[in-house]
């Protein structure tokens, strides 16, 4: 069993930055950040594999967010810059050992989940 714990969420004004951290008991090969707004489905933001490059859900996200990982520390990060009000959501860390690792991976495909950390961006 892999335990995941997010931290780093908070409230910022538009244009600000936040850095999310996901600390795990282990570091599965595929790790991802997803987000969810109440009443909407969870959506992938970015993924990263131990042996591959990161993937992002859109060019807009790619231009403002950076996903990274530190396998020695069983950690994954999401640096979020130029935050917009529409980025407000609960952000989740998710992971799995095997299979495709991309933003088109169905959220049901992840074996392990954190509890989430809230990000609120005010205009």
Task: Describe it.
- By secondary structure, the protein is mainly beta.
- Helices cover 5% and strands 48% of the residues.
- It is built from one helix and eleven strands.
- Strands 2, 4, 5, 6, 9, 10 and 11 form a seven-stranded mixed beta sheet that branches. Strands 1-3-8-7 form a four-stranded antiparallel beta sheet.
- A hairpin with a 5-residue loop joins strand 5 and strand 6.
Can you write the helix and strand succession as a string?
EEEEEEHEEEEE
Mean pLDDT: 96
* Radius of gyration, CA atoms, in whole angstroms: 13 Å
By secondary-structure content and strand pairing, the structural class works out as: mainly beta
Helix content: under 10%
Total DSSP helices:
1
The parts where pLDDT drops under 50 for at least 5 residues are: none
What is the CA–CA distance across the termini? 40 Å
The fraction of residues in strands falls at over 45%
Number of DSSP-assigned strands: 11
Main β-sheet description: 7 strands, mixed
Approximate shape: globular
Write the layout of secondary structure elements.
Layout: E1 4-7, E2 10-13, E3 18-24, E4 30-36, E5 43-49, E6 55-56, H1 59-64, E7 65-70, E8 75-80, E9 89-96, E10 112-113, E11 117-122
Parallel strand pairs: 2-11
Antiparallel strand pairs: 1-3, 3-8, 4-5, 4-9, 5-6, 7-8, 9-10, 9-11
